[in-house]
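Objective 1b. Sequence-to-structure analysis of Peptidase S74 domain-containing protein.
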Amino acid sequence: MDNKLDDGNLYVGNAKGIATSTLKTAVPLSGFGAAAKDVEMGGFKLTGLSDPGLAQDAATKAYVDSKTSKTPQQPTVPTTAVAGDTYYNTTDQHLYVYNGTEWIPMDNKLDDGNLYVGNAKGIATSTLKTAVPLSGFGAAVKDVEMGGFKLTGLSDPGLAQDAATKAYVDSKTVKTPQQPTAPTTAVAGDTYYNTTDQHLYVYNGTEWIPMDNKLDEGNLYVGNAKGIATSTLKTAVPLSGFAAAVKDVEMGGFKITNLADPQNESDAVNKKALDAGLAAASAAAKDNLGNHTAVENIKLGAYAISADGGAGKGLTVEADGSVIFAQSATIRQNFYTPSDRRLKDHIETLSSTLQKIDQIRGVRFEYKDQTKYATGPKIGVIAQELQKVYPEMVTQGKDGFLKVDYTQLTGILIQAIKEQQVEIEELKMRMNKQQEQIDQILKKLK
């Protein structure tokens, strides 16, 4: 029952189930469990090993030697070979492989200037560059640099995009005649330069038409009934018939004379009609602001401009210059806010806009005082909620109530959409990756 054991021996259970001192050399290596990690051999061999039978069996030296042989090196092909055999030709210094029919060169050796070109048997063959036709290549994907060299032996072009030869170009170009009179024979498209009036003319099939930019001083080119540009005196061109002006017309201190009496509201007023209107207004003891030009800034004080002059209506200007519209305002043209980059400083791209918008409610509401404010249901935001995340969009009026600049919401919404788009793209990528993984799993299950 003690732990005494001869040097180098092992306790091994015998047939009676009793631990027996046994020489280590008497314990067979077979019968142990599979190794749980690599077996370190300490630089020693495994001797007396049987030749392997299965793929994962340890190989013996005899087995390895039987499977490996040096590639033949000789000036001619081997007399016997099976598909897959190789040999190195010491004459042309190429490595060859036998494909079952013939020996094929397999390395990257290639004569100077030659190209590998597939032959009818599907084998890469060393071919002179001069034997490779330029036709049959794919379409160019960028400009072809000719390095100052010509394309010679070119066929005359047949299609619009074919390269033109010198012969074709020479056949299409002739010098424009230069003479004091028109040619006696001509076809539509012919040109000539008149040395007398120094104009370039083109024949339209009926007559010769001047085509250059020569024009007598002060004249204009005006199309005639035949559709031909004709030199015309400026005084012969009526002002009527032009398109509407796209900006103010500068008169340079000159008058518009011989003006007809106005008929419509937008007609220009002549002196006669203006004097008559002023006289009529004076006679009626009324002053029409529309008939006067202000000579200084108009001061409204505490008053408003409205259709009926009623209190609390129309447009009122505050002492600080702020304008209040007591009723709805309709903008028939564009409403602009200065936004030029050159006017701005401390520019920062908005961030976390989606998170901040989540703290603002879009609400439908009605004003309590519908005599002072707009009537009926409205849609907007609550100023106090907006002030918490974007205080620069909220200000307090003289009456103590908060006001919102809704125009600034545009920038917030633009940035929020961009942030949302980034999230959408990230989700798309994740979904695509997940779909790829699913497809791979399904493929393995098939």
